[in-house]
Structures are given as structure tokens and as C-alpha cells.
Amino acid sequence: MTDVMMMIVFTLLAGLAMPAGALLARIERIHPDWLENELRHSVVAFGGGALLSAVALVLVPEGAARLTASSAALCFAGGGLAFMALDVLLDRFKTRAGQLAAMLSDFIPESLALGAAFAYGSKSGALLLAGLMALQNLPEGFNAYRELSATARPGNGRGRAVKSFVGMALLGPAAALAGYFWLAANPPLVSGIMLFAAGGILYSVFQDIAPQAVLERHWAPPMGAVLGFLLGILGHMLITHGA
Asked: Which of 34, 38, 74, 132 sits a CA distance of 20 to 30 A from 126?
């Protein structure tokens, strides 16, 4: 299998974790009721922890390595401001899609980075990076589906949301191909995109995800965040040691 085909397969499988998470979220009832409620909050927190790990261990270190301090600060702050503007816009139109935006904001730049890694000849960490992306996308797909279905109008059809997630999974291979053929020649641009996404993700975590994870007199959801971040640590260590 050629490098390009491997890259497409890796990113596609990572992207398909989004509809897989959505299908898991379609399970309506888990008994007893308290377990269903705590599970939902735990999955939300797990996704938040995974996103924070992507920011702390992948997007910021890789992005800051090739930029000056001022450029890095501008890209990072710009991402936060852009997501704040998006949040204001979504609120004005009375729609909730913060989880959806967060899901795409780390999937696309990580796919770009995976494509660039193939172009640089660093294949050893590509499979592990794709695995980390998939494990992040699963809870993010779960959370995004719950968020969208909570405000969906009756009769819209939940299957439509799953189909849209499948369509979004195709953005991964497209971004990887862009990283492989075009962006690899401009490492500072890839770094800027990663830091921009990191700023946006951090805004989304504290604006949309963390408040949803809170559940009074229950302690499992915060541990979900710890486990999500731990997942990122393990993935980062495996990638680093395998490089």
C-alpha cells in the first residue's frame, strides 16, 4: 500500500469514529436512570479531557516549535476569538453546536499534521496519531450528537445527523492530502493552523464542555476528564518513543 493510500485509510478510520460515537449516543435508555445520567456526564468530561490533551500535547508543542513567540500568541488568541465569535453567532441563531465545532477543530488540523508527517517521512508515529484521533473522535461524536439532538425539531430524523457525521469523516482524508501535497512545504503555516485550532478548542472546552460535565454529588465525571487526558498522554508517549 502506498503512503497516500495508507494516509487516506488512517484518517478515514479516525473520522468514522465520529459517527460511531453518534450511534452509541442513540442508545436511549440505560438502567438504572442514575447510571445513564452519570454515563452521559462522564463521556462529556472524557471528551473534554481528550481535547485538552490534544491542545497540551500535540497542537501547542508542535505549533509553537516553528513560530516566534509573537506569531504563536497571535494564532492562539485568534483561534479563541474566532470561536467566541462563532459561539455568539450560534447563540444568535438559537442553535447549539459547540461540541460539533470542537470536534472538527481538532480533527482537521491533526489530519493536516498527519499528512505533513507522511510528507516529512515520519511514518512511525502516523498510525499512533491516527489512533489517538479516533479515540478522541469517539466521545466527541457522542457529545456532539447529544448536543444536536437535544435541540433538534421533531421529525427531523436522527439518522440525518449520523449521515452528516459520516460526511464530515471525509474531511479527514481531504485535510491529510492537503497537508501532504501543499502544506508540507510551509511548516510555519501548518504550525499556525494548529495553534489557531488549539485556541479555539480551549475556548470550547471551558465554554461548552466543562459546564455540561458537572453533576452534583457524583464524582465519576471528573475522573472521566482525567482518563481522557491520560489517553492523550499515553498516545503522546507512544508517538514520541516510536518516532
From this structure: 74
